[in-house]
Hints:
Blueprint: H1 4-10, H2 13-21, E1 41-42, H3 72-78, H4 81-97, E2 102-103, H5 127-142, E3 147-153, E4 166-168, H6 171-178, H7 180-189, E5 193-196, E6 200-201, E7 204-205, H8 210-220, E8 226-229, H9 237-243, H10 254-265, H11 271-291, H12 301-315, E9 317-321, E10 335-339, H13 364-372, E11 377-381, H14 392-403, E12 407-413, H15 432-442, E13 448-453, H16 461-466, E14 469-472, H17 480-488, E15 521-523, H18 532-537, E16 555-563, E17 572-580, E18 586-596, E19 607-616, E20 621-628, E21 635-637, E22 642-644, E23 648-657, E24 660-669, H19 684-688, H20 691-704, H21 716-722, H22 727-734, H23 740-750
Parallel strand pairs: 1-2, 2-3, 3-5, 4-6, 4-15, 5-8, 10-11, 10-12, 12-13, 13-14
Antiparallel strand pairs: 6-7, 9-14, 16-17, 17-20, 18-19, 18-23, 21-22, 23-24
Helix pairs in contact: 1-11, 2-10, 2-11, 3-12, 4-5, 4-12, 5-7, 12-17, 13-17, 14-15, 20-23
The protein binds beta-D-glucopyranose (BGC).
Amino acid sequence: MFDPQAVAALLTLDEKAALVAGDTVWTTAAVERLEVPALVLTDGPHGVRRLAEDADPGDLYNCRPATAFPTAAAMGSSWDTELLEEIGEALAAESRALGVDVLLGPGLNIKRTPLCGRNFEYFSEDPVLSGHLAAAWVRGLQQSGVGASLKHFAANNQETNRMRVNAEVDERTLREIYLPAFEYAVRNSAPATVMAAYNALNGVPAAQNRWLLTEVLREEWGFDGFVVSDWGAVADPAAAIPAGLDLRMPGTGDRGAAELAALVKEGTLDEADLDRAAERILRVAADLYARRTTGVPAVDHEHHRQLTRRAAAESAVLLTNEEAFLPLDASRGGGLAVLGEFARTPRFQGGGSSHVQPTRLETALEELTRAVDGRRDITFAPGFRLDSSPSPELIDEAVAAAQNADDVVVFLGLPEAAESEGFDRTCLDLPDVQLDLLRAVAAVNPRIAVVLSNGGVVVTHEIEELARSVLELWLGGQASGGAAADVLLGRAEPGGRLAETIPLALSHTPAHINFPGTPERVLYGERLYVGYRWYDKTARDVGHPFGHGLSYTTFAYTDLAVRVPDPRRNAAVVAFTLTNTGQRTGSEVAQVYVTDVEASVDRPERELKAFRKVRLAPGESRRVELSLDERDFAFWDERRRAWTVEPGTFRISAGASSRDLRLTAVVDLSVAPPELPLTLDSAVEEWINRPQARAALRRVLAAVSRPGARDFDNDETGLLLMGSMPLRRMLALGMPDVSPQALADLLAAANGGA
Ligand code: BGC
């Protein structure tokens, strides 16, 4: 369509400024004289949120109908990269039909605390799972020419004070927990854009953070698209653009463009920085247009309806199922009490910028009624009000329905007011009125399945004591009601596994004493111990572990083999056999965790490094093979500021959750990282551990030591005492006569010189 470089060279200062400043809330500026159209960017991520033509720009909820797919909290629990790619493709078709060029998602921040009000928009507490799912979604979306935006980069893990808080996170924690999902998606799916977050990171606003936006994102990971600010995240464009920000949103028409042009004219902003940003926007636009090889395709809404219903079932996590209470038998006759307002008024998406206007909303009540088709007698009672105000009459009515029924399904969850973009939650419990309802119903009929709809986790142990089965639906999109009916009646499998630990109490959660910080700062004091890494390291019981989820069938893991294909590389191939040992077809999410058995730094007990969702018929077996590369064994070494694998033994476990490891093997890796040169600030112990350095040191010490001085490197107590001392200090304390020349010679000899 147009050659971005050629166009960039022809742009006037005002045109460049207009491009980088954005035009309207949702569009970039067109350059008509050069035939450059405006780009349309909208939310996302779970459906296309294109404002209605006549909508007031401030009215986020007046939008054109679009399929509301499951939220990321649900999709994260699917552990299904193929499914996410399919959803990405469907979103691309709807985006094209609604004239959208960039869909603002996926959200891939790590769930640091279950209180984050926006956790429904994020996949997981684990970076490997988040990264793989995000990359699949982006690939699906972008292949037909709609751009993605990885958000919110980076360390935007809370809503409280999100526009001013400074996240204080050490580099190792960033590298191992908060950045890798972005890194994986950048390297494996080439997203068109990345969205700079509102918060500051280690003292510098994310949108002005050169280390983040240029050194890490572009220079290390090879990001090739443009960086867009979160809406309103740029406070100082003269700092943001040189740091690596390319598009400031929302646009403010001529005002924003004039501001940028003036900054250039007065010398505050270098025109070359503006050139670079403008050219990146043009390059992404040209690339998206080039990928659109067909005209706007017609949207197959029926296909999307089926897809979203299947996706919701694939994301639903069966937490407990005593005596195989589920699935219910649709044809066995008898009464079925369907209780809870959410059965007829589903909670299926979260509040804020991701809110879409669904094309068609399925309710569990209607879908159960349709599926049972008169074979069971369904009675509905709402049981509670969505505003959580107490109503003894509603509870009494529900109890009466339960009393007369054979089986009871109770739909509970978080009301919309409990979680949203813009604020964080204050507790992990369901509203009291809902628990009161459940207690009252359980007192008259024990045959209860509870279906939960919530974006962030709720504590479930009391619910589990009162019900035989608990099915976590999350916010499962517009077809979550249909999916609930499918899973409850066994027409679909509960395909989900927890992408997030369910804790026993808020006070057990990793960030508890460091959340939400003050308006100015939040310290990530738990470091890398987020999610299961924390519960495992601190040996805490949990409600349900990361990775957990039951199926209607059972699986066996056998014959684990781990091999190192090339001894010159610290990489391994893990293989095991998975067998469906039950009576029904079902899918298992096989998970592989790696443990560094002995390390020079603290490391998590185990970390997810690979997974595969496998669907098997009864009796069917499949050999699953997964590759682990160097990075899967590495930690971020703060001293060398690089990924490092320490040679030695690693434990590889395969299983059905982080705490249901069925098979374990060990593997020895032997490739050592290059040694860091010794300095006078290296510890005595480090000197002594290297033979060449040790010999050189002995020579120097022999020349200056007094008769009777301790031979410290053969003296265990002396070593214990002095081992961690920087050499410089030891010499200063005991041997002040070592000359500068002797020290220089010592260093040269120790590090491989003569
Ligand atoms: C949100 C983004 C969203 C943007 C545009 C911001 O407030 O944080 O996720 O894409 O608004 O609606």
